[in-house]
């Protein structure tokens, strides 16, 4: 069965939607917020960012709300909010599955996931 477009978000896509979840932003603000939230672990270059923005605009996860010269500001749509929430649930399920798997085998204290609450 073919996979639906954007059924599972990449890490970069997830963080881009997270950035828009609170307020409208332009591209540089998205990049700065993601670097801040991830303590520099996730860095988006312009090509990656604008590819994601184009995909999200095409599937109506975001919409452009302002243009000021070359600066474009976008906001998340209801469809984008739903996609973000669904991805959070999918990721939580992955953690719960890993936690359940770990309970059945040898535990590694450094990888303990038991502090996470499962669905």
Structure explained in plain terms:
- The protein has 119 residues and is an alpha+beta fold.
- The chain is built from four helices and three strands, in the order H-E-H-H-E-E-H.
- It has helices spanning 11-22, 27-37, 46-58, 78-104; strands at 25-26, 62-68, 71-76.
- A three-stranded antiparallel β-sheet has the order 1-3-2.
- A hairpin with a 2-residue loop joins strand 2 and strand 3.
- Helix 1 crosses helix 2 and helix 1 (11-22) crosses helix 4 (78-104).
- The protein starts with 10 loop residues before the first helix and ends in a 15-residue tail after the last helix.
- The mean pLDDT is 87.
Which features characterize this protein?
3 strands; 119 residues; alpha+beta
Report, as a whole number of angstroms, the end-to-end distance: 27 Å
**Helix-strand topology string:** HEHHEEH
The fraction of residues in strands falls at: 5-15%
The biggest beta sheet is recorded as: 3 strands, antiparallel
Please state how the strands of the largest beta sheet are arranged side by side.
1-3-2
Total DSSP E strands: 3
């Amino acid at each position: 069965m073919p996979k639906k477009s954007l059924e599972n978000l990449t890490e970069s896509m997830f963080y881009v939607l997270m950035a828009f979840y609170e307020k409208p932003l332009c591209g540089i603000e998205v990049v700065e917020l993601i670097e801040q939230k991830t303590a520099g672990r996730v860095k988006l270059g312009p090509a990656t960012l604008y590819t994601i923005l184009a995909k999200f605009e095409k599937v109506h996860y975001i919409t452009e709300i302002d243009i000021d010269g070359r600066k474009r500001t976008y906001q998340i749509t209801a469809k984008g909010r739903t996609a973000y929430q669904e991805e959070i649930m999918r990721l939580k399920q992955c953690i719960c599955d890993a936690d359940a798997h770990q309970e059945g085998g040898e535990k590694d204290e450094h990888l303990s996931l038991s502090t996470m609450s499962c669905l």
